[in-house]
Amino acid sequence: MSDAYTLYSMQLSGNCYKIRLALHELGRPFRIVDVEKGSGVTASPEFLALNPNAQVPLLILPDGRPLAESGAMLIHLAEGTELIPSDSYERALCFQWMFFEQYSHEPVIAVARNWLHLTPGGRQTMAHRLEEWQQKGHRVLGVMEGRLAASPFFAGPRFSIADIALYAYTHAAEDADYDLSAYPAIGNWLDRVADRPRHVGIEWRP
Prior knowledge:
This protein is an alpha+beta fold. The protein is 51% helix and 8% strand. It has 2 domains: 5-78, Glutaredoxin; 88-195, Glutathione S-transferase Yfyf (Class Pi), Chain A, domain 2 (Up-down Bundle). α1 (14-26) links the parallel β1 and β2. α4 runs parallel beside α7 (161-170).
């Protein structure tokens, strides 16, 4: 049995980046299995045996058990660490913002980034969605701005997995045509996250 995690990951995926960032933040040893978009790896019988939902990221624990869904991975990795608040209310806030990221933030900002930045011809294909993405995305960013104007991090005074979850796609929001200059509290928060001693960028590899 290895003491290292194995992460099936697409390098430019924000969801995969969340897990790389958390593993590095926690100092956990891990190896990467690169999965190229469109390669068919996630549709293979071997992969489907590990994750029937056929998606990355996929985390293999040191004991060999598989775990899918980035939010579940973050919670599992951070359990018992300072990345999940010990105070019950702040812990609930942490999960609240993680749910917000999945249900309000990612369906707009991450999806727009995928089409506009990562998919060849995506801007033309999805031209009819651009205005909707801008309206909904800026509403989401406004909600975040309000929170970060009142608190240094999403769950309170300390950095948590909620910040990791929201940082992954927010720091790359300009790839999806979102101008962050109108959100100074978000800008300051992005700087605080990037300044953490164990921070790594989306291009970093172990």
